[in-house]
Amino acid sequence: MRTRRGAALISAATAGVLLSACTAGGGSNSGAAAAFDPNQQLTLTVYSNFADRELGVLNKALDGFRAKYPNIKVNSQGNQDDDKITQSIRSGNPPDVAISFATDNIGQFCSSKAWQDLKPHLDRDKLDLNQIPQAVRDYTSYQGTRCAMPMLADVNGLYYNKDLFAQAGITAAPKNMTELFEDAKKLTQRNPDGSIKTIGFIPQIGFYANHPQIWAPQFGAKWVDGNGKSDLATDPGWQELFTFQKKLVDFYGWENLQKFTAGLGQEYSADHGFNKGQVAMMFDGEYRTAFINNDAPKLNYGTAPSPVADDRANLYGGGYTTGTIVGIPKGAKNSAAGWELVKYLSTDTGALVQLANGLNNVPSTKDALHSPDLKLPPQFKTFLDIFDNPNLASNPASPNGGAYIKTVEDFANSWQSGKVTDLKGELAKVDKTIDDAKALGGN
């Protein structure tokens, strides 16, 4: 049920620690992989940001590793975010294995060598990375360095209220943006004064799960060109995305939209607007199924792949993904045994299925994805199918984390509120801001 909303922008504290991490702590990040002795008695320390029930789910999965290697004890410590992980690296006392929700930090983890290069282990063990979708391989490596492996994934799609659909005479989820727009109009109900009572679809970037990286795959929008430079102004997908998004905003009226969303429940509260029947359609991740099961179990809803641009029908069925990552910090005392645990959490089908069932996230290998032992609600299958689609996409890693996403979202706030009229010209300014920041970040 955990999400990665808070991982969109690497914190200043984390960035500073990571930049200096390559000069702190012991151990080596290169050369041959250290030999693993399963008979050696030792304790592996694992840091993760899991807490409460979810930490219990992780610990149950770790029981399988303990059973496989009875000489190894595992000290699992929850509530350890990326700042705490990187501070431990800087102090020279890191955990043996680190689990992070912040995939946007992968560029810093790999480029600073704060997380060890896993290539020696992968080469020695001849691990088949084709078990992992390309988009997932991309967000666990940076510029050819793989310093992390995936451990579960989040996948975004469309949620829709079946009862509201039936009342509006709509029989199927929209597959393209024209259908989304027309359905949103039919599903929207207004009060006598023209204010919004029930909204068909919230187009407001920055609200709930509406973020640029989640919209981009539906328009085939590319973040960078062949030289790694920001490409928003020249890639037609971005202009089409923002033009469509503003069309929906204008249909509702910016002031009306702001007033309506201000009155909705918080994103992770029981009175979320979708739970209450105030929102008919929305983009969100697979983890929302667990929230709905807990907070609104009687809600009659369906899920589908997110609709795509009208001229990009070939993209339908794919979507945006990100996920949990696991690696070995620089200076880890037991890197050989640590790798065995990383490998277990990222490739063992039984462990991944167990974690997926307990956390309501998508398992990150093809074998686990198709396991008959997955026990998830019917609406969850949509996200398994999206993850298995060749059009699955993520956003590129950057040396300064998700700062570029924040830059685009800041622009979107000006655009949707009517403060920007020259779309292409302003996107060119966004490109320059992103490229300048990346250069300062050590790209």
UniProtKB/TrEMBL annotation:
Residues 1-26 form the signal peptide. Its main location: other. It holds the Pfam family SBP_bac_1. Transmembrane segments: none annotated. The keyword Ribosomal protein does not apply. Belongs to the bacterial solute-binding protein 1 family. This is Probable sugar-binding periplasmic protein.
